[in-house]
Amino acid sequence: MPIPRFRSVAALFGLQGLLAGCAAVGHLPTLEPGDYQFFRTNDPILAAAVGKERAFYVEQAQDSLRFFGQADASTPDHRFSYALRRGHHAILLDRKFDLDVFTIPFKARPARGPVPVQLNTNFNAALYLGRRLDFYHVSGRQLLGGRQEPQIRTVGLGYGLFTGLGSTAISADVLRQPGTGIEYEGFVVHAGAAAIYDARIFNLGLAIGADQLLGPDGRHWLYQRKPWFGVLFGLDLN
Known about the structure:
The protein has helices at about 5-15, 15-20, 25, 45-50, and strands spanning about 25-30, 35-40, 55-60, 65-70, 75-85, 90-105, 105-110, 120, 125-140, 150-170, 185-200, 200-215, 225-235. By secondary structure, the protein is mainly beta. The chain has 2 domains: about 10-85, no CATH class; about 95-235, no CATH class. Strands 1, 2, 3, 4, 5, 6, 7, 8, 9, 10, 11, 12 and 13 form a 13-stranded antiparallel sheet that branches. The longest helix is centred in the first third of the chain and has 8 residues, at about 5-15. The chain is elongated. This is Lipoprotein. Keywords: Signal. It comes from Hymenobacter lucidus.
Protein backbone atom coordinates (compact mmCIF):
# COMPACT_ATOMS: atom_id res chain seq x y z
CA MET A 1 0.00 0.00 0.00
CA PRO A 2 1.51 3.39 -0.95
CA ILE A 3 2.32 5.77 1.88
CA PRO A 4 0.23 8.97 1.90
CA ARG A 5 2.24 12.15 1.38
CA PHE A 6 1.31 14.33 4.31
CA ARG A 7 2.57 17.78 3.32
CA SER A 8 1.65 19.01 6.77
CA VAL A 9 4.22 16.67 8.31
CA ALA A 10 7.05 18.44 6.54
CA ALA A 11 5.62 21.68 7.83
CA LEU A 12 5.66 20.30 11.35
CA PHE A 13 9.36 19.57 11.12
CA GLY A 14 9.88 23.04 9.70
CA LEU A 15 8.43 24.78 12.75
CA GLN A 16 11.82 25.36 14.29
CA GLY A 17 10.53 27.81 16.87
CA LEU A 18 8.08 25.31 18.30
CA LEU A 19 10.56 22.46 18.37
CA ALA A 20 13.27 24.65 19.83
CA GLY A 21 10.95 25.63 22.65
CA CYS A 22 10.38 21.94 23.38
CA ALA A 23 13.93 20.70 22.83
CA ALA A 24 13.81 18.05 25.51
CA VAL A 25 10.37 16.97 24.32
CA GLY A 26 11.01 16.49 20.61
CA HIS A 27 14.55 15.03 20.60
CA LEU A 28 15.74 11.46 21.12
CA PRO A 29 19.27 10.31 21.97
CA THR A 30 19.09 7.31 19.60
CA LEU A 31 16.69 5.68 17.19
CA GLU A 32 15.13 2.53 18.58
CA PRO A 33 15.71 -0.46 16.28
CA GLY A 34 12.53 -1.71 14.68
CA ASP A 35 10.26 -1.82 11.64
CA TYR A 36 9.74 1.53 9.92
CA GLN A 37 8.35 2.86 6.68
CA PHE A 38 10.62 5.12 4.67
CA PHE A 39 8.74 8.40 4.27
CA ARG A 40 11.01 11.04 2.72
CA THR A 41 14.59 12.27 2.26
CA ASN A 42 16.37 15.27 0.74
CA ASP A 43 19.40 13.15 -0.18
CA PRO A 44 19.30 11.69 -3.72
CA ILE A 45 21.90 9.08 -2.72
CA LEU A 46 19.61 7.65 -0.04
CA ALA A 47 16.58 7.91 -2.34
CA ALA A 48 18.41 5.85 -4.97
CA ALA A 49 19.45 3.24 -2.39
CA VAL A 50 15.89 2.88 -1.10
CA GLY A 51 14.34 2.62 -4.55
CA LYS A 52 10.66 1.78 -4.60
CA GLU A 53 10.74 -0.16 -1.34
CA ARG A 54 9.16 1.44 1.70
CA ALA A 55 9.18 -1.12 4.54
CA PHE A 56 12.49 -1.65 6.35
CA TYR A 57 13.92 -2.88 9.59
CA VAL A 58 16.17 0.00 10.68
CA GLU A 59 18.83 0.22 13.35
CA GLN A 60 21.27 2.95 14.28
CA ALA A 61 25.01 2.22 14.43
CA GLN A 62 26.66 5.33 15.89
CA ASP A 63 26.47 7.93 13.10
CA SER A 64 24.89 5.61 10.49
CA LEU A 65 21.57 3.96 9.80
CA ARG A 66 21.35 0.33 8.67
CA PHE A 67 18.41 -0.61 6.48
CA PHE A 68 17.22 -4.20 6.10
CA GLY A 69 14.45 -4.99 3.67
CA GLN A 70 13.38 -7.22 0.81
CA ALA A 71 12.18 -5.88 -2.52
CA ASP A 72 9.98 -8.94 -3.15
CA ALA A 73 9.91 -12.66 -2.47
CA SER A 74 11.99 -13.49 -5.56
CA THR A 75 14.93 -11.13 -4.91
CA PRO A 76 17.78 -11.19 -2.38
CA ASP A 77 17.59 -9.19 0.83
CA HIS A 78 17.85 -5.46 0.31
CA ARG A 79 20.48 -4.17 2.79
CA PHE A 80 22.57 -1.04 2.94
CA SER A 81 24.04 1.50 5.37
CA TYR A 82 23.59 5.25 5.24
CA ALA A 83 26.00 7.70 6.93
CA LEU A 84 24.20 10.63 8.56
CA ARG A 85 25.53 13.96 7.34
CA ARG A 86 24.85 17.59 8.05
CA GLY A 87 22.31 19.09 5.67
CA HIS A 88 20.77 15.72 4.75
CA HIS A 89 17.96 13.93 6.51
CA ALA A 90 15.67 10.93 6.36
CA ILE A 91 12.12 10.84 7.73
CA LEU A 92 10.92 7.45 8.98
CA LEU A 93 7.37 6.53 9.92
CA ASP A 94 6.18 4.08 12.56
CA ARG A 95 2.48 3.16 12.54
CA LYS A 96 0.82 1.41 15.47
CA PHE A 97 -2.26 1.25 17.66
CA ASP A 98 -2.34 3.33 20.82
CA LEU A 99 -4.15 2.68 24.12
CA ASP A 100 -4.02 5.47 26.71
CA VAL A 101 -5.78 6.91 29.72
CA PHE A 102 -6.49 10.65 29.57
CA THR A 103 -8.04 13.32 31.72
CA ILE A 104 -10.32 15.94 30.20
CA PRO A 105 -9.43 19.25 31.93
CA PHE A 106 -12.41 21.10 30.50
CA LYS A 107 -15.41 20.79 28.21
CA ALA A 108 -16.92 23.67 26.26
CA ARG A 109 -20.67 23.21 25.81
CA PRO A 110 -22.52 25.26 23.16
CA ALA A 111 -25.43 27.44 24.29
CA ARG A 112 -28.66 25.55 24.94
CA GLY A 113 -31.97 27.32 25.52
CA PRO A 114 -31.56 30.06 28.13
CA VAL A 115 -28.10 28.85 29.17
CA PRO A 116 -25.09 30.51 27.43
CA VAL A 117 -21.88 28.74 26.41
CA GLN A 118 -20.47 26.83 29.36
CA LEU A 119 -16.91 25.87 30.28
CA ASN A 120 -17.04 22.86 32.60
CA THR A 121 -13.95 21.93 34.63
CA ASN A 122 -15.37 18.96 36.53
CA PHE A 123 -13.43 15.72 36.88
CA ASN A 124 -13.40 13.59 33.73
CA ALA A 125 -11.34 10.57 32.69
CA ALA A 126 -11.24 8.73 29.36
CA LEU A 127 -9.88 5.53 27.89
CA TYR A 128 -8.55 6.22 24.38
CA LEU A 129 -7.94 3.74 21.56
CA GLY A 130 -6.64 4.89 18.21
CA ARG A 131 -4.12 4.87 15.42
CA ARG A 132 -0.73 6.48 16.05
CA LEU A 133 1.80 7.83 13.54
CA ASP A 134 5.32 8.52 14.84
CA PHE A 135 7.59 10.50 12.49
CA TYR A 136 11.37 10.42 13.06
CA HIS A 137 13.51 13.13 11.43
CA VAL A 138 17.04 11.70 11.42
CA SER A 139 19.99 13.85 10.36
CA GLY A 140 23.55 14.70 11.34
CA ARG A 141 25.22 17.74 12.81
CA GLN A 142 28.86 18.68 12.79
CA LEU A 143 30.67 19.20 16.10
CA LEU A 144 33.89 21.05 16.81
CA GLY A 145 36.75 19.10 15.28
CA GLY A 146 34.67 18.02 12.30
CA ARG A 147 33.05 14.98 13.94
CA GLN A 148 29.49 14.15 12.86
CA GLU A 149 26.83 13.43 15.48
CA PRO A 150 23.33 12.01 14.85
CA GLN A 151 20.37 14.27 15.55
CA ILE A 152 16.92 12.71 15.94
CA ARG A 153 13.71 14.69 16.25
CA THR A 154 10.32 13.09 16.61
CA VAL A 155 6.67 14.01 16.59
CA GLY A 156 3.71 11.70 17.17
CA LEU A 157 0.20 12.21 15.80
CA GLY A 158 -2.86 10.10 16.37
CA TYR A 159 -6.60 9.81 15.92
CA GLY A 160 -9.13 7.55 17.58
CA LEU A 161 -12.11 7.08 19.86
CA PHE A 162 -12.52 7.44 23.62
CA THR A 163 -15.00 6.65 26.35
CA GLY A 164 -14.99 7.32 30.05
CA LEU A 165 -16.60 8.66 33.19
CA GLY A 166 -17.00 12.10 34.69
CA SER A 167 -19.18 14.50 36.60
CA THR A 168 -21.10 17.70 35.91
CA ALA A 169 -22.98 20.28 37.95
CA ILE A 170 -26.75 19.78 37.94
CA SER A 171 -29.18 22.51 38.94
CA ALA A 172 -32.61 23.78 37.93
CA ASP A 173 -30.94 26.07 35.34
CA VAL A 174 -29.82 23.13 33.16
CA LEU A 175 -33.02 21.08 33.41
CA ARG A 176 -35.97 21.44 31.03
CA GLN A 177 -38.37 21.01 33.95
CA PRO A 178 -37.87 20.92 37.72
CA GLY A 179 -36.21 17.76 38.92
CA THR A 180 -35.31 16.95 42.48
CA GLY A 181 -34.77 20.67 43.24
CA ILE A 182 -31.34 19.88 44.65
CA GLU A 183 -28.03 21.11 43.21
CA TYR A 184 -25.55 18.25 42.97
CA GLU A 185 -22.69 16.73 40.96
CA GLY A 186 -24.22 14.40 38.39
CA PHE A 187 -22.50 11.24 37.16
CA VAL A 188 -21.96 11.11 33.37
CA VAL A 189 -20.68 8.58 30.85
CA HIS A 190 -19.05 10.18 27.82
CA ALA A 191 -17.75 9.05 24.42
CA GLY A 192 -16.35 10.69 21.31
CA ALA A 193 -13.45 11.10 18.90
CA ALA A 194 -10.10 12.86 19.30
CA ALA A 195 -6.94 13.90 17.48
CA ILE A 196 -3.77 13.49 19.58
CA TYR A 197 -0.33 15.14 19.60
CA ASP A 198 2.29 13.01 21.37
CA ALA A 199 5.31 14.93 22.67
CA ARG A 200 6.87 11.88 24.35
CA ILE A 201 6.63 13.43 27.83
CA PHE A 202 2.95 14.34 27.59
CA ASN A 203 0.01 13.77 25.24
CA LEU A 204 -2.43 16.48 24.22
CA GLY A 205 -5.58 16.09 22.17
CA LEU A 206 -8.60 17.95 20.83
CA ALA A 207 -11.85 16.10 21.36
CA ILE A 208 -15.50 16.19 20.43
CA GLY A 209 -17.89 14.10 22.48
CA ALA A 210 -21.27 13.74 24.13
CA ASP A 211 -22.41 13.01 27.69
CA GLN A 212 -25.07 10.71 29.07
CA LEU A 213 -26.28 11.85 32.50
CA LEU A 214 -27.22 8.92 34.70
CA GLY A 215 -30.16 9.08 37.08
CA PRO A 216 -33.74 10.40 36.94
CA ASP A 217 -32.72 13.90 35.79
CA GLY A 218 -31.05 12.56 32.64
CA ARG A 219 -34.17 12.87 30.48
CA HIS A 220 -34.57 16.55 31.50
CA TRP A 221 -30.92 17.62 31.17
CA LEU A 222 -30.31 20.22 28.45
CA TYR A 223 -27.00 18.60 27.41
CA GLN A 224 -28.09 14.99 27.32
CA ARG A 225 -26.26 13.42 24.33
CA LYS A 226 -25.46 16.89 22.95
CA PRO A 227 -21.97 17.58 21.54
CA TRP A 228 -19.22 19.30 23.50
CA PHE A 229 -15.66 20.26 22.63
CA GLY A 230 -12.71 19.74 24.90
CA VAL A 231 -9.08 18.85 25.50
CA LEU A 232 -7.54 15.50 26.41
CA PHE A 233 -4.36 15.49 28.48
CA GLY A 234 -2.15 12.65 29.68
CA LEU A 235 1.39 11.88 30.82
CA ASP A 236 3.55 9.29 29.11
CA LEU A 237 4.74 7.04 31.93
CA ASN A 238 6.48 4.45 29.69
